[in-house]
Amino acid sequence: MDIEKLIKESKRIVICGIGNELRGDDAFGIVFVEKLKEKVSNENILILNCGPVPESFLGKIIEFKPDLIIFVDAVHFNGKPGELIIADPEGTLGDTISTHGMPLKILMKFIKGHINAKAILIGCQPKSLEMFGEVSEEVKKALEKLISLFCEIL
């Protein structure tokens, strides 16, 4: 999947950072969006810190009417710590409720019922999700790489 092409072809984009800053590398998504907010300002890009409950932001997402929704989260996929993947959020983790509340698959079904938007999940393999832990060096490097890429594209 060519993320640069997908972003450039989209007129309105929502970027949702998901995670919990108290659980080490689980902060990946929210650290990403907070740093991106400092560097990117565009009325056609909505950057949301969704914390652990992205479903609480459904109204804002739908109201913005994006063509593309990008979810950014720490994701276990048996990769090396700090490794990034791009996935289809509708194909992730089945229908069970996860630690973030509602899984992205169910969230996307709801969103698609209201707007016609493409969606991708950018996931980072965490090293540690220890309570009150720090973000690992591997995940910090992945954050720098992804922020640099997004600043270049946007």
SSE inventory with pairings:
Blueprint: H1 3-8, E1 13-18, H2 28-39, E2 45-51, H3 58-64, E3 68-74, E4 84-87, H4 104-112, E5 118-124, H5 137-153
Parallel strand pairs: 1-2, 1-3, 3-5
Antiparallel strand pairs: 4-5
The CATH architecture can be named as 3-Layer(aba) Sandwich
Sequence of strands across the biggest β-sheet:
2-1-3-5-4
Radius of gyration: 14 Å
| Mass-distribution shape | globular
Q: Tell me, rounded to a whole number, the average pLDDT.
A: 88
Order of helices and strands: HEHEHEEHEH
Topology-level CATH name: Rossmann fold
- The assigned structural class equals alpha/beta
Tell me the total number of β-strands. 5
CATH homologous superfamily designation: HybD-like
Question: How widely separated are the two ends?
Answer: 17 Å
Q: Please give the CATH class.
A: Alpha Beta
Helix content: 25-40%
Number of helices: 5
Low-confidence segments, ≥5 residues, pLDDT <50?
A: 93-101
Question: How many independent structural domains?
Answer: 1
Q: Major sheet, described briefly? A: 5 strands, mixed
Strand content: 15-25%
Describe the protein:
It is a single chain. By secondary structure, the chain is α/β, with parallel strands linked by helices. 33% of the residues lie in helices and 20% in strands. Strands 2-1-3-5-4 form a 5-stranded mixed sheet. Strand 1, helix 2 (28-39) and strand 2 (45-51) form a beta-alpha-beta unit. Helix 2 runs parallel beside helix 5 (137-153). The longest helix is centred in the last third of the chain and has 17 residues, at 137-153. The chain is globular, with a radius of gyration of 14 Å. Residues 93-101 have low confidence and may be disordered. This is Hydrogenase 3 maturation endopeptidase HyCI. Keywords: Hydrolase, Protease. It is an enzyme of class 3 (hydrolase).
